[in-house]
Amino acid sequence: MADKSQHNAYWSANLRIIGISLVIWFVCSFGFGILLRPLLSGIKIGGTDLGFWFAQQGSILVFLVLIFTYAWRMNKLDREHGVEE
């Protein structure tokens, strides 16, 4: 990757993936687990309300999915820009 425009395109795509991942994580952990918890209290999942589930379990599962999705997307981005290992 000798070209500066390719370098900038790579990092721009990388930062976009990171930004989207952080927004999803924030919405699931802080949004659903704290801010929207009273609205989600009527929905039951696994014997408890959905807001409590997101605060205790859901945000962790979403985070794990985001880790694997990020790794998959970065491997694809690396191949597209010729910087794979």
UniProtKB/TrEMBL annotation:
The chain crosses the membrane at residues 20-40, 52-72. This is Sodium symporter small subunit domain-containing protein. InterPro entries: Na_symporter_ssu. The keyword Transmembrane applies. The keyword Transmembrane helix applies. Pfam families: DUF4212 (PF13937). Keywords: Membrane, Transmembrane, Transmembrane helix. The lineage of its organism: Bacteria, Pseudomonadati, Pseudomonadota, Alphaproteobacteria, Rhodobacterales. Residues 8-84 form the Sodium symporter small subunit domain.
